[in-house]
Amino acid sequence: AVEPGNTATDFEFKTAEEVKAFLPNYEDGISILDLGGDNSGVNDNTPAFEQARRIVLSLENPTILFPAGRYLFNSQTSVFDIAGNVTIQGLGYVEIVRNYTEGSSGNALMSTSITKLSVRDVKFIAPDGTSGGGFVAFGSDASNSASMPELINCSYAYEGAGTCDYGFIFD
């Protein structure tokens, strides 16, 4: 595991055994906290999430876990650009805060096309001073029901004068 706010060096696991040696509880998914994530709402979680995203795509259970807390993302681009069937799972009360100020409606915090993305038990927050963009943009192949996105027990909210162009969009 990596200390909060510190991100593991880039690495690539070739086997499930290598993942298990580094992350002993990986069968349940990859916890963003094990990769330097911070659930205090203070430090940027973009680097830790990028590590989790790279690892999870090679696993049988492609799930990224967010234990209870508040997760800040300062990225001005889509950090959750998912390629593969992935689940984002909140454990307890989870807030994902997008600190976005570019004013472009084209960028969502999470985006996917063709592949399936499931997001469960997460509240998305636009903090004071945030404007533009959105939280989740799903593109899917309507002819393939296996690729249809899921939002389960998710919501979004604004704090202070924070805004965004959209919360959840299905294209």
Structure explained in plain terms:
The chain is mainly beta and 171 residues long. The protein contains 2 helices and 12 strands; from the N terminus they run αββαββββββββββ. The protein has helices at 16-22, 46-56; strands spanning 30-31, 40-44, 63-73, 80-82, 86-98, 108-112, 117-120, 123-126, 134-138, 150-152, 155-158, 166-170. Strands 1, 2, 3, 5, 7, 8, 10 and 11 form an 8-stranded parallel β-sheet that branches. A 4-stranded parallel β-sheet has the order 4-6-9-12. The longest helix has 11 residues, at 46-56. The mean pLDDT is 76.
N- to C-terminal distance: 37 Å
Number of strands: 12
User: How can the largest sheet be summarized?
Assistant: 8 strands, parallel
Rough outline: globular
Q: Which structural class best describes the helix and strand composition? A: mainly beta
- Strand/helix succession: HEEHEEEEEEEEEE
Radius of gyration: 15 Å
Put simply, the count of helices is 2
Unreliable sequence segments: none
Instruction: Bin the strand percentage.
Output: 35-45%
* Helical percentage: 10-25%
Question: Roughly what is the average pLDDT, rounded to an integer?
Answer: 76
Question: Brief description of this entry?
Answer:
The chain is mainly beta and about 170 residues long. The chain is about 10% helix and about 35% strand.
